[in-house]
Amino acid sequence: MTGEFLALAAVASGGAAGAVSRYVLGRFASHWAAGAIEHFPWHTFGINVLGSFLLGLFAVWYKSHSQSHWWLLLGTGFCGGFTTFSTFSLETLALIERDRWGSAMFYAFGSVAVGLVAAWCAARNA
User: Residue 29 CA to chain centroid, in angstroms?
Assistant: First the structure.
């Protein structure tokens, strides 16, 4: 039971740190580019790309160290709390509802493509 409790504590701690980090970074970005967010959600786009990059780094590090508590803390917990896929989905829908189809398609496909490139760069360079 102790091992399972430690696993849950690692995921919860990492998730809390990731969620708080996302909130702080999102607030900072929304103040910095307040007008631009109405036309394109750059703050969520950037957080998703950064989260993909970090998850790629953590995955490579985990493969070489195989310490599952670090993966649970950083990969599952922190990156799971930090990345914003549900927000991404809602913002894409909001762009479509505002008849900003070009922005919505760029955001959806760009987020996936740039996120994949970020994870690849992290895995390749770690």
Answer: 15
Place of tokens 């479509």: 96
Q: What letter represents residue 39's amino acid? A: H
Q: What percent of the chain has pLDDT above 90?
A: 45
How far is it, in rounded angstroms, from Cα 114 to Cα 91? Answer: 17
- Segment 60-109, tens digit of pLDDT: 888 777 778 888 999 899 999 999 787 788 889 989 999 999 999 999 99
The single-letter code of the amino acid at 124 is R
Handedness of CA 22, 28, 33, 35 (dihedral sign): positive
Q: Does residue 72 contact residue 35 with C-beta atoms inside 8 Å?
A: no
**What whole-number distance in Å separates Cα of residue 48 and Cα of residue 61?**
20
Q: What is the pTM of this model?
A: 0.76
